[in-house]
Write a structure and sequence with these properties.
The protein has 321 residues and is an alpha/beta fold. The protein is 32% helix and 24% strand. The chain contains eight helices and 15 strands.
Length: 321
């Protein structure tokens, strides 16, 4: 189970190529966690000296006969004497939240290793991958459709679509003339590095191309899961409210670019664009902000310039290596 969001580690993830109908699924196994040590308790008489081992430097508590308590940290396998009678209940088992933190650390560490592997695989092919993130309904797929139509003669682009269910978005991308692989995560609310690895194998992007990853609509968990991408791009629609960067700071802090979409609707909404940008820069001063309308095309040239920069940067790095 993902401790960040509660989605199951044993879900079946389905990969589909809409162009051929080829489909396969992968059942993901659970992450194992060492069970916590069982608590031990013992009594000792006044003045008795005894050796016992404590794990690490974590403090533990002694309860005295008079009801008072003290805590101290121990080095492993040491001896100490107590000049008083007390029941000695050693709670060596970590609290429940410690097990949760351990599980989350294992999940994220495993994901990070796979993300670095993806990053190396992409670099070996000089492929630029961008991770597109947002809440549901912000316009990610519409942005991709317009980008593909406008740049198809200039850039070779492939798309990996992430959704819990359906092929709807992948079919829209395929209709725009782009190779695409759909990843259905079941109850999972974000893509992870191993999912991208499978998707890349099926997409098989050609050297020097770009891969645009449309993540599952969610402003929480995807911020924590590196996929091996060149940059995270978070999209916020003006229909969502200008305080989104403050409500979901981890996402905006983790991102390199913020796209403010649907600006053609600004005349009809009570949305303070400058305040929204100010909130975003408060969370992430280095955030690059682009204001666009994927529907009308307003501001899209700035987005295309960013894509060209990414491709040029990858080519420069490849030439230097």
């Amino acid at each position: 189970m993902c401790t960040t969001c509660g989605c199951s580690e044993t879900d079946q993830v389905v990969y589909t190529d809409p162009a051929t109908g080829r489909q396969y699924s992968v059942t993901r196994g659970p992450v194992s966690v060492e069970p916590p040590a069982q608590p031990r308790s013992h009594q000792h008489d006044r003045g008795e000296e005894h050796p016992h081992a404590h794990g690490g430097d974590d403090p533990h508590f002694h309860m005295h006969a008079d009801g008072t308590a003290h805590s101290h940290a121990h080095d492993p396998a040491h001896g100490h004497g107590h000049g008083h009678l007390h029941d000695h209940g050693h709670g060596h088992a970590p609290p429940a939240h410690a097990t949760t933190v351990t599980l989350e650390q294992q999940i994220l560490a495993k994901n990070q290793r796979l993300a670095e592997r993806n990053r190396g695989w992409l670099a070996g092919r000089n492929v630029v991958a961008l991770n597109l993130l947002s809440a549901p309904g912000s316009g990610k797929t519409t942005l991709l459709e317009r980008t593909l139509r406008d740049l198809r003669q200039e850039l070779a682009i492939g798309v990996i679509e992430g959704d819990q269910a359906t092929l709807n978005d992948a079919e829209r991308i395929r209709a725009a003339g782009c190779p695409v692989v759909q990843i259905n995560t079941g109850t999972g609310c974000h893509l992870e590095a191993d999912m991208l690895a499978h998707g890349l194998q099926q997409l098989d992007p050609r050297p020097g191309s770009m891969v645009l990853i449309e993540n599952v609509g969610n402003l929480v968990c995807p911020a924590l899961f590196d996929l091996g991408e060149r940059a995270k791009v978070v999209m916020l629609a003006v229909t969502e409210g200008e305080d989104k960067p403050l409500k979901y700071p981890h996402m905006f802090r983790a991102s390199d670019v913020m796209l403010v979409n649907k600006i053609d609707l600004l005349p009809y909404l009570r949305f303070d664009l400058e305040r929204c940008i100010g909130y975003a820069r408060e969370v992430n001063p280095a955030l690059r902000v682009l204001c666009v309308s994927a529907q009308t095309g307003t501001g899209m040239q700035a987005w295309y310039a960013f894509l060209r920069e990414c491709v040029a940067g990858t080519r420069t790095a490849a030439a230097a290596s």
